[in-house]
Each structure stands twice: as structure tokens, then as C-alpha cells.
Amino acid sequence: MKIIDQSLLNILATWQKELEQSTSDQELEALRIAYLGRSGRVNELMGRLKKLPLEEKRTFGPQVQQLQEIITQGLHTAQQKLREESQEKELSKKKNFDVTASNPSIFDKATGSLHPYTHLIERIEDIFTSMGFAYAQGPEVETEWYNFEALNIPADHPARDMQDTFWLTTPGLLLRTHTSSVQVHTMKTQQPPLAVFTPGRVFRHEATDATHDFMFMQCEGLLIDKNISLTHLCSLLKVFMRTLFEKNDLSIRLRPSYFPFVEPGLEVDISCIFCKNGCALCKKTQWIEMGGSGLVHPETLKACGIDPTLYSGCAWGIGIERLAMLLYGINDIRLFHSGKIEFLKQF
Ligand code: DAH
């Protein structure tokens, strides 16, 4: 049946124009609703058809039917064409994908950088290896014996309170509270003469603030040989600090203190690197505290299988964050493992 009714021909003409302009699935779907939907053009025509006298129904009805078929078929073909085109596009994308292509502008902006820990540990490593020290490491999960007992800190010793400990649920296991435990590993496995430095992470069950964290880094040093004395300790620390801070007139001060694994135990201070007469950083004292040190206690040597009548040694433990904060002007210890990109990008 041919469409001859003018109103139907008009609808067909607009439909064809709109179909040509529809280039996406969404547009085709909108077109389907406008023509074939419940309140679409075709249904409107059906309503009109119902009201016509029988004679007119006979000629108008089949023409509406024809229009509906043309529209349905047209939509179907257009949808199929769209699908084929998008499949072809995908295929050609895959075929022409260049794995070697790069966008240099992205990479220029997003270069990585070294963490301040890495910078500092590399510098520490340079200084100690140049003095003949070897790099040593130990486990972060430690036994009570390596962390405390071998270091002359038995279970009931009040010195255990100085280091609030993260205990594991397995009895006797803990997160090491200091790198001094690596001294024990070294002495137990190697014979003197010994010279090691051991940078590493340590853990304390402590409240955090700008200068305290529950996780931080220390660098331990240990020298064992015949006739090691405070002179060795003092000069080693002086050379280390002067080289690290690139300051030849830097002084070292050793103050009596107490650590069960050394005798005497000494607190290490350096002369303030920022002032000569006292400033806010050294709290007007002209000295900055750096860590602990001493001559290895005979009990510690014995526990690790070294004869204290033949050998003596000196040891020290220094906070790595302390050094980094002074060297790089960092004012909050928690920044180190905050993962803040703005902080890290500066190094
Ligand atoms: N382990 C001590 C602490 O974390 C620091 C220390 C003191 C290390 C004296 C030493 C030392 O090697 O001899 O507080």
C-alpha cells in the first residue's frame, strides 16, 4: 500500500530528516519514543483512525500501518549501522595502538624523588663506609632476648619502662624498640674486630606529637676491638657529625647518663649548628641532643660470646629524624611517613 495521505507524507518527511540527524544510541532511542512510544506520533494517528467513518478507515488504516513499518525498519537499520561503526572503531583503535607512544609533557611534570630518609641514609652510609664500617641489618620483629636481655635489661629491670614496647600476641616477640638489638646480632655472628653501622626502623608505644612518633629511625654504631676507649667514641662521633653537617668547627659534648648495655653511658650533644650564643632551636643552651652512647658493658659482651677481658667496644645510637629535621629544616616528625606528596616533592 502506498502512502498518499498528505498529513502522513509530511510526518514521513520530518521523520526521515530527523533520522538522518540522529547519530547516537540515545538520539535514536529518543526518536523511537517520539514516533513509536505510547504518546508518540503513530499512536496519535491510531487515535485519529478510530474516529474516522468506516470508508475512510479502509484507506487511511493501511497507510498508517505502512508508516509504522517504515519507521520501525528505519530505526532498526540505523541502530545496526551504529553498532557496526562503533565495533569497527574499537577494532581500529586496538590495531593502531602504539605501545611505544609517550606523552613527554606528563612525565616531565611527574618525576619521582627520593624520600628524605633515603637521602640521609645514603649520606650516613658514605661517611661510615669511608671510615671502614660495614652496613649491618637486623629484624624489626625481635625476640625479648635480642631487644632487652642480651643488652643487660632483664625482665624486671626498670630500664624497660624507658622504652614503651609493642608486644606481639606471640609471647616473647616484640617490635624492636631500638637498633641496639642489631649490635647483639652482629656480635653473636661475627668475631672482633668489628665495625658496623645499622640504620633501621624502631617502634615505641607512645603518644605522638611534632617531636615524637610511634615509629622512627635510628642509626646504631658499634666498634669492638682490643683497647677501644672513649677517645675512639669521641673522635668517631666528631668526624661523623662534622662531615654530615659540613661544619669543621662543630663540637661534641658527652654527658654522663645511663643505659644498661654500656658503662659508662653517655648522652651525645653537638654544638648548635644555627647559633653561637643560644637560639630557640637549642633552647638557649648552645647544645643539641643527638642520642646515646657509651663503652659496651662487659655483661653485654659476655652475653654475645665476646670475652670482655680481651676486647672492649664503644657504641652509639642516633635518631635519624633528628638529623634530617636539622639538616632539611623539617618541623614535624610525623611528616616523614605521612605520605604527603607536597612534603615529599621537596626532596
Ligand atoms: N638504644 C638507646 C635508645 O634507643 C640509644 C643508645 C644508647 C644506643 C647508648 C647505644 C648506646 O648504642 O651505647 O634510647
List the keywords.
BirA Bifunctional Protein, domain 2; 347 residues; alpha+beta; 9 strands; 7-stranded mixed beta sheet; binds 3,4-dihydroxyphenylalanine; 12 helices
- What fold name stands as the CATH topology of the largest domain? BirA Bifunctional Protein, domain 2
| Helix content range | 40-55%
Most strands sheet: 7 strands, mixed
What is the CA–CA distance across the termini? 81 Å
Biggest sheet, strands in spatial order?
1-4-5-9-8-7-6
Shape: rod-shaped
CATH architecture classification of the largest domain: 2-Layer Sandwich
Rounded mean pLDDT is: 93
Counted by DSSP, the helix tally is 12
CATH superfamily label of the largest domain: Bira Bifunctional Protein, Domain 2
Could you spell the SSE succession in H and E letters?
A: HHHHHHEEHEHEEHEEEHEHH
Helix/strand-derived category reads alpha+beta
Radius of gyration, whole Å: 40 Å
Fraction in beta strands: 15-25%
What would you note in describing this structure?
The chain folds into 2 domains: 6-95; 116-344, Bira Bifunctional Protein, Domain 2 (BirA Bifunctional Protein, domain 2, 2-Layer Sandwich), CATH 3.30.930.10. The mean pLDDT is 93. The longest helix has 42 residues, at 54-95. The strands form 2 sheets. The chain has a 7-stranded mixed sheet, with helices on both faces. It is an alpha+beta fold and 347 residues long. The protein has helices at 6-21, 25-36, 41-51, 54-95, 104-109, 116-130, 144-147, 180-189, 230-245, 298-303, 320-328, 341-344; strands at 134-135, 141-143, 173-175, 194-203, 215-225, 252-257, 262-271, 287-296, 312-319. The protein is built from 12 helices and 9 strands. The chain starts with 5 loop residues before the first helix and ends with a helix. It is 44% helix and 18% strand.
